[in-house]
Design a protein that fits this description.
3-stranded mixed beta sheet, Glutathione hydrolase proenzyme, alpha+beta, 22 helices, transferase, 33% helix, disordered N terminus, globular
């Protein structure tokens, strides 16, 4: 584990001097000025779902963010430097998905040592949190009330993740890599239809928090598509982090503002909404630590697949599903048979995830067993070509695998919010980063820290409010300092120690199925990476029905699958993946969504002719 680094005495003096001479007076007060909307469009780079070339690559959901990463690569920074720059820019342009008020998981491949390293920057519950954090009178409080509250806010891990990644593996300082994002926040970005629709979906609760309304509903109205959205408060926050380092969050004035906001949410006078206070303290911030840990690793088709170990369930679940499918030649199956086996493998992996995966500091998580081929083989025999498994499916026992035998009672999969963002980066030296970060729901808790320009997370609602089945141990109940289980799945695939592909996605629990299906589409079905990402998705998470995007819902394959017992519900959009692929001759391919979330942005430093 890595504690948040403290500034040297010289650094503190320099930072204080800089803040006294350069930070505007408005930055000193929580009642900072509202953003200044403008009808003049910002200079946003064009979006493209695929790019091929040299010097490195960046793929994210947003063109301004990808451009920030490319700028760092172009100036000689490495993949880690560019990943942090891209993430910081996403905090400006994708503020409802990520930002300094959230957390995430950072997976990095080092070309020199040919190793994969990971950082767990997940948010943590306050030290005062118990298993009944979201219970009142012995019953779970309404989910929506839990989301929009101080009660749901975990200690942010994103600033510490950036600092730790740069300190260990980067070549640039936090001061340098935050420059593009600070400029973007100050100068503004062009509002698109996705940003406006996400604002509209949150409008009612945003209006109940004056600081949130002042920022995201300028002049009391929804932001206009094509206008320029500026966030001067966030620009000042980034400048404070540049000048003072992440101590500003974990030991300084910025952190005090966060704690104050959580403990006394600034609700509009007269608002009918019930907004509970949280119990986050300065001690919770000051003791936060990024965990450095080994990635999950599994073999698939002669490839090494690396992912994020618990507290995320992404690495173990994808590894198990791939291991289950290892003995099926998916390349030769019909679309119906391929989707059937993929759906069933996902169902099984989620059944085991729910029983076994939680924060390993508090739970005995059998990570090695969950990712073993032996355990997968004991579960794969459940899959039949002419029948469908019934959910909720009982888990197996990875500690004592027995073919086709359950290891406990079935429990349904608990809900997990669907908003997050992901970025993937490669540099000219062959280093790769897959980084998924989040504030959980679209719009997080809905609470902007006054004068700071960013939303607080509602990550603690990823805990189970109560056991899904009282007779079954739930590894994901709240606890003091505990990390809630996540589905974030940043993934890097190697062949003989060299990168093949890296990818990840937002989407709550659908992240696991999105990454899994994209990998299968590319590695087994032979689709180009951009098409593997764009293909219509199915998501089965140990539920009675599998979710289908319209491309599958409206296709003949749905009826073919229903004929053997599958049940489906329609989901208009699942996930929003990005990835990079290593090509011969030092080239990189960056791939992003063609349509989902308005399309993603793939860029390279020097496009090939």
């Amino acid at each position: 584990m890595t504690p948040v680094r403290r500034l040297s005495v010289l650094g503190v003096v320099a930072a204080l001097a800089g803040s006294l001479t350069t930070v505007p007076a408005a930055a000193q007060s929580p009642a900072a000025a509202p953003p200044s909307p403008s009808r003049a469009p910002a200079k946003t780079p064009p979006k493209a779902p695929v790019a091929v070339g040299y010097g490195g690559a960046v793929s994210s959901v947003d063109a301004d963010a990808s451009a920030a990463g490319i700028e760092v690569l172009r100036k000689g920074g490495n993949a880690v430097d560019a990943a942090v720059a891209t993430a910081a820019a996403l905090g400006v342009t994708e503020p409802y998905s990520a930002g300094v008020g959230g957390g995430g998981y950072f997976v990095s491949y080092d070309a020199k040592s040919r190793t994969v390293r990971t950082l767990d920057g997940r948010e943590t519950a306050p030290r005062s949190a118990g298993s009944g954090l979201f219970l009142e009178n012995g019953k779970p409080i309404p989910f929506d009330e839990a989301v929009t509250s101080g009660l749901s806010v975990g200690t942010p891990g994103t600033p510490a993740t950036w600092d730790t990644a740069l300190d260990r593996w980067g070549t640039r300082s936090l001061r340098d890599v935050l420059k593009p994002a600070e400029k973007l926040a100050r100068d503004g970005f062009t509002v698109d239809a996705t940003f406006r629709s996400q604002t509209a979906a949150n409008e009612a609760r945003f209006r109940d928090f004056p600081a949130t309304a002042r920022l995201f509903l300028p002049g009391g109205k929804l932001p206009v598509v094509g206008s320029t959205f500026k966030n001067p408060d966030l620009a000042r926050t980034y400048k404070e982090l540049r000048d003072q380092g992440v101590d500003a969050m974990y030991h300084g004035r910025l952190g005090k503002d966060v704690v104050r906001t959580v403990r006394k949410p600034p609700v509009r006078p007269g608002a009918d909404r019930k907004v509970r206070a949280g119990d986050l303290t300065a001690r919770d911030l000051g003791s936060y630590e990024v965990r450095s840990q080994a990635p999950t690793r599994s073999r698939y088709r002669g490839l090494d697949v690396y992912g994020m170990a618990p507290s995320s369930s992404g690495g173990t679940s994808i590894a198990e599903a791939l291991n289950i499918l290892e003995h099926s030649d998916l390349s030769k199956l019909s679309e119906k048979d391929y989707l059937h086996r993929y759906i069933e493998a996902s169902r099984i992996a989620f059944a085991d995830r729910g029983r076994w995966v939680g924060d390993p500091r508090f739970e005995d998580v059998p990570t090695r067993g969950l990712t073993s081929q032996r355990f997968a083989d004991s579960r794969a025999c459940l899959i039949k070509d002419d029948a469908v498994l019934t959910s909720p499916l009982a888990p197996g026992d990875p500690r004592h695998p027995k073919p086709c035998k359950a290891g406990g009672r079935a429990t349904p999969t608990t809900y997990e919010g669907e908003n997050t963002t992901h970025l993937t980066v490669a540099d000219k030296w062959g280093n790769v980063v897959a980084y998924t970060l989040t504030i959980e729901q679209t719009g997080g808790s809905g609470i902007v820290v006054p004068g700071r320009g960013f939303l607080l997370n509602n990550e603690l609602t990823d805990f189970s409010f109560a056991p899904a089945n009282p007779a079954v141990h739930d590894p994901n109940l709240p606890g003091p300092g505990k990390r809630p289980r996540s589905s974030m799945s940043p993934t890097i695939v190697l062949r003989d120690g060299r990168p093949v592909v890296a990818l990840g996605s937002p989407g709550g629990a659908t992240i696991i199925t999105t990454v899994l299906q994209s990998l299968l589409n590319h590695l087994d079905r032979g689709m180009p990476l951009v098409d593997a990402i764009a293909a219509p998705r199915a998501s089965q998470r140990n539920a009675a029905a599998t979710e289908l995007e319209p491309g599958l819902w409206d296709s003949p394959v749905r009826a073919q699958l229903e004929a053997i017992g599958h049940r489906f519900t329609r989901n208009p959009e699942i996930g929003a993946a990005t990835g990079v692929q290593r090509l011969p001759g030092g080239r990189w391919l960056a791939a992003a969504e063609k349509v989902r979330r308005g399309g993603g942005s793939a860029m390279v430093v020097r496009p090939q002719d």
